[in-house]
Amino acid sequence: MPRRNSWLVGGVAIALAACAPQTPVPDTNDIGAARQAALAFDIRMRTDILDRLEREEDSVAVYLAYRDNVPGWANEIGARLGVEVSRTALRTRNPANSPDDWEIRQMELFEFSREAGLDPSTMEVAEIVAEEGRQVFRWIRPIVMGEMCLACHGEEIDPRLIVLLNQEYPLDEAVDYHETDLGGAYSVSKALTPAPAVTPTP
Fold first, then answer.
1. N or C, which end of the chain has less CB nearby within 10 Å?
2. What pTM was estimated for this model as a whole?
């Protein structure tokens, strides 16, 4: 009898598990595209922006090159890979790059993991989430501040650049970083199902 009862309990558990909704698993192709997008952005940053700083070009000129070119890279890379690419942070310079709730939650977890001693280069999150009635692939990876990044985001920024930043972004929070700090994240998304049709109100 005990064996029979044990078997019944197990059978019920299996039946309940079978009825439970299954969490969708991200497609490996979408994860690969997200990783490629972040890598492509890294390469463009290195070749078009950070190399200018290594050559000791004027910091204001480097910033202007960054401001004028970086927004288009996200559109270009995303269109090529079939995803939407952005960069965001818990402390943003441009309010247009402010994170949504999902991004805030993941970046807070990244920061907690870094403080616990984990290597940020090993961190990433890929999920399928429900947004506005449709399924969306979401992927995020932290960005680590390097020495060159501090020219625009550190504690000792060129005073001329500070004046320009204050004019363009009076609510700028993306300063006073140190090398190896997490300066934000690459965020990639892709709609997997169409948005529900909206019925016009008569």
1. C
2. 0.83
